[in-house]
Write a structure and sequence with these properties.
Blueprint (H helix, E strand, L loop, with lengths): L13 H16 L4 H20 L7 H26 L4 H23 L6 H23 L12 H21 L11 H36 L2
Helix pairs in contact: 1-3, 2-3, 2-4, 3-4, 3-6, 4-5, 5-7, 6-7
């Protein structure tokens, strides 16, 4: 076990922990550094972005893009688990764990923006709100309370929403549906709008929870 314990860790559901047990053990046995897994998440995100970028010309790439998004999430889960299991967790590692996530979000939604299957602005607004949501999540830790992972449009759910939107867009393409099949917006436009609105709600929830934690901490301090 690592002598260093991160101040805040993203909750991982028990089924995913069980699935990750063997990969984590293999990474530790083969001396795979957790930083390498963090950097690999950027490679997976870049592959997803490339698929999305070219999906306007080759719609079948919409099948692959979500798989790379999930590969990115798997790397994001494994790096921290491997760091703790191998005793390589550190303060520097927390930075390496966070920064590739932000790069990955920007890459993926830039790919959406330039896919030709939606308005460029909708993809970039989704990118901006994804980055802002993550930033707000770190504010609690920065001011001495908990790192916030709460809200309906956290990182995993952004990827799930994008998965649904990509496959919906592909289904409509295969059915020969025109641009107006879903009204004034395309499938990926609606997806980006859902992500933007979900991120705004998530930001509100996270700020409210951080505010409550600060008030509790202030009361505890006064009571001492």
């Amino acid at each position: 076990m690592s002598p260093y314990e991160p101040a805040s860790r993203r909750p991982i559901a028990a089924p995913f922990r069980r699935l990750a047990k063997i990969p984590v053990e293999l990474c530790v046995r083969w001396n795979v550094h957790p930083d390498a897994i963090s950097y690999l998440s950027i490679v997976a995100a870049a592959a997803a972005a490339l698929c999305l970028w070219q999906a306007g010309k080759h719609p079948w790439l919409l099948l692959l893009a979500p798989l790379f998004c999930y590969a990115r999430l798997a790397c994001n889960m494994l790096d921290g688990m491997v760091a703790l299991a191998s005793g390589k967790a550190s303060r520097r590692g927390e930075i390496v764990n966070e920064l590739p996530d932000r790069i990955s979000d920007a890459l993926i939604f830039a790919g959406v923006a330039h896919s030709g299957l939606n308005a460029v602005a909708s993809g970039y607004w989704a990118a901006i709100l994804a980055l802002l949501t993550a930033y707000v999540g770190t504010l609690g830790q920065a001011v001495g309370v908990q790192r916030e992972f709460s809200g309906p449009m956290s990182k995993p759910w952004r990827m799930v929403a994008l998965h649904a939107g990509a496959w919906l867009a592909l289904g409509l393409e295969w059915l020969g549906a025109g641009p107006g099949a879903l009204g004034p917006l395309t499938a990926l436009d609606w997806t980006c709008l859902l992500i933007v609105l979900g991120c705004l709600q998530t930001i509100w929830i996270r700020l409210a929870r951080i505010g409550s934690a600060l008030r509790r901490k202030a009361k505890e301090t006064e009571g001492k």
